[in-house]
Design goal:
Metal_Hydrolase; about 325 residues; alpha/beta; TIM Barrel; single chain; 3-stranded parallel beta sheet; disordered C terminus; about 35% helix
């Protein structure tokens, strides 16, 4: 792939790193900002997303509803199938962004985690700049995870490595918040001690803990707030999400909002009778339009993801002094 064009001043313009290469943020179209085409964890036996044909059908169904891009938050070691992503993207016409990173410890064997000790940040940087395994597919963000109302040693280790990868590349960091909690602890660590700019942090699953005060504090800090998971059957907070999103928009934080489906099981896919990715556009989008107005909802689906994911990618470490 040829280097990104530079501006007259020599700066590399911000681009979103997709599985088919870096693209201008405005090309993302309508974006599902948090989802999974492939996913598998020993902690969730029998719920794996492994079928490439089903993933293709789900992307095609999303495209039929007007979808233009999907951000897969599946990190290292959880069945990302990075080599399959470019063909799926080409076949369906949907941009796909892949992730590096590491989930909670429960999703890995102790042996696999020991193998990563001392080199986790290097793994993240390599997957962001050179590619995932031998696929040549470069990740476009780092995904890590917090715990329930706290950050354990594993979370601090992975977030420290994610911050190092950010400083080396500029990559955004997406954070799984366990049941929507510990958002402020995450920001204290990443944006305080580890000096990651808040606008490079995406906080996921905030809808699972509908605390409007914490959500507003996170937005005031400058992070992006992802409301995701309408495809999941085990989180009964969909009814409160429009009010939370409206409260944030009314407070002036409409530009910090992201929306995603977070499809994590085969049964949840639309091609298997579940809501899946299309539900985000078929039902969630018009419901939010009633609360926020169609114009703002369109910006949340199109402009906000581009701002959250677009990076002036670099390949040499730089840290604030």
């Amino acid at each position: 792939m040829s280097p990104a064009p530079t501006s007259p001043g020599g700066a590399v313009p911000a681009r979103v790193r997709t599985v088919l290469g870096d693209v201008p943020p405005e090309l993302l179209g309508v974006c599902d900002a948090h989802d999974h085409l492939f996913f598998g964890s020993p902690a969730l036996p029998g719920q794996e997303l492994r079928d490439a044909s089903a993933a293709r059908a789900e992307l095609a169904a999303f495209r039929e509803q007007g979808g233009g891009s999907v951000v897969q938050w599946t990190p290292y070691g959880l069945g990302r199938r990075a080599a399959d992503l470019p063909l799926l993207s080409r076949d369906t016409g949907v941009h796909v962004v892949a992730a590096t990173g590491l989930h909670q410890a429960v999703h890995y064997t102790p042996e696999s985690l020991r193998e990563l000790r001392g080199r986790l940040a290097d793994v993240f940087v390599r997957e962001l700049t050179s590619g995932i395994g031998t696929s040549g597919v470069r990740a476009g963000l780092v995904k890590v995870a917090g715990g329930f109302h706290a950050l354990d040693a594993h979370a601090r280790w992975t977030m420290t490595a994610a911050a190092e990868a950010h400083h080396a590349t500029g990559a955004p960091i997406a954070v799984h918040l366990e049941l929507g909690t510990a958002a402020l602890d995450v920001l204290d660590l990443l944006c305080g001690a580890l000096e990651v700019p808040p606008h490079r942090v995406i906080l996921g699953h905030l809808n699972r803990s509908p605390d409007l005060v914490v959500q507003r504090q996170a937005a005031e800090a400058g992070a992006y707030l992802a409301f995701d998971g309408p495809s999941r059957a085990n989180h009964a907070t969909d009814w409160s999400m429009p009010d939370a999103v409206r409260a944030l928009a009314d407070a002036g934080f409409g530009h910090r909002l992201l929306l995603g489906a977070d499809t994590t099981t085969a049964a949840a896919r639309s091609v298997n009778g579940g809501p899946g990715m299309p539900y985000l556009l078929r039902r969630v989008r018009p419901r939010l339009a009633l609360a926020l107005g169609a114009e703002l909802v369109e910006r949340v689906f199109t402009q906000n993801p581009g701002r959250a994911l677009a990076v002036e990618w670099r390949s040499t470490p730089t840290r604030p002094t």
